[in-house]
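step 3/5: co-fold with adenosine-5'-diphosphate
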Amino acid sequence: MPYKKYDKILVINSGSSSLKFTLFCMSGETIMAKGLVERIGTDNANLVYQRSGEKKSEQGIAAENHGKALAMACKMLITPGVGVLKTLQEVKAVGHRVVHGAEFFSEPVLTTEDVKATIKKCSDLAPLHNPANLDGIVACETVFPHVPNVSVFDTAFHQTMPKHAYMYAIPQQFYDDYGIRKYGFHGTSHKFVMQAAAEYLKRPVAELKLITCHMGNGSSIAAIDGGKVLDTSMGLTPLPGMIMGTRCGDIDPAIIFYLARKGMSIDEIDNVLNKKSGLFGINGINSGDMRDTVNAAAQGKSAAANAIEMFGHRAALYIGGYYTLLGGADAIIFTGGIGENSHPARKAIISRLAAIGCELDEEKNLEIFGTLSPVSTPKSKTPALVIPTNEELMIARETFRVLSEEMKK
Ligand code: ADP
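step 4/5: write tokens
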């Protein structure tokens, strides 16, 4: 029974004012319960909880910090009638999403004091995320003393990228002094769909050339060659690359100096490029949501229709470039909220991929919602696959793998 020792694994995704949790039973890779605490540190903190197969419940709670938030969530897990555990001691391990591991972590790791100090050191590169991720780890150390915590980094999978892909053409000194380079994000999702594609195509990862498109509020595309990332569209931060919900993606960097000289402060520009750009900035309806954009386009709003075309154009630019760098592709994968669900967004992309042998199956594209399925025609040389991602399950799997390897030491 391979999962016996670590059968119940809790996965934590801790943000600055929220804490998401998912409890897995690893023997069937099933979710037992999940939920989140929102508005931690405010007077109106809220706990959303859902036992598998049942309706969500919501209640206001006192949660002045992440430790209190987790304690309240865990109380639900053991409350008769709504809970799924007899005691919290059944939780044998916790896996944490950690956003930035810089060059220190190319694999998930057991979270020791040294690892925590290094995560803190990386906060410079992800000031909004890493401190919050650490809060989640510290909360678990309090609520689950003696239970191992594994850190799973968004950046780790992309550490396989070659130097000529991750270096920027700016003075070397900036890399040496500040670690300025491309790191890439969504690594856990890109890796999950890579493995799912290999299983579906019945071929080992080592043989496959894949282009994985994770498209949600944040979007990134990766070229993966034999299980190693060849390039990816996000960079030092999650700002470049694709047009996103509210982030600008690739722009001429001189726009920043131009706006600064027009009188905007660095913080104002930062805010505009991260929170007021992307679909939000261009679709004419001030919404970063693809569904709203599609609806507005259907009502004849030309700015929204153009936003979808811009989205498709940008994605095709990356996919075509990665196809060339990989020397072909065994599949192009679509995942994330938009990749899995938005047929107009997929159409805007795939209709631009004829030159690389990928032809949209119009009917299938309309039918598919969040299930693993091809959306290209059978005669397409390069198939397009929709593969639902599952970052929480990937974190649980990685947690199990790290702990099994630790046991062998
Ligand atoms: P995040 O990156 O925050 O995890 P998601 O992966 O949930 O976000 O993606 C959010 C995006 O996915 C939004 O633009 C939303 O419009 C789109 N989306 C989610 N569900 C659907 C759906 N059923 N149909 C069309 N678009 C969807």
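step 5/5: annotate
Residues 216-218, 245, 289-291, 336-338, 341-342 surround adenosine-5'-diphosphate (CB under 6 Å).
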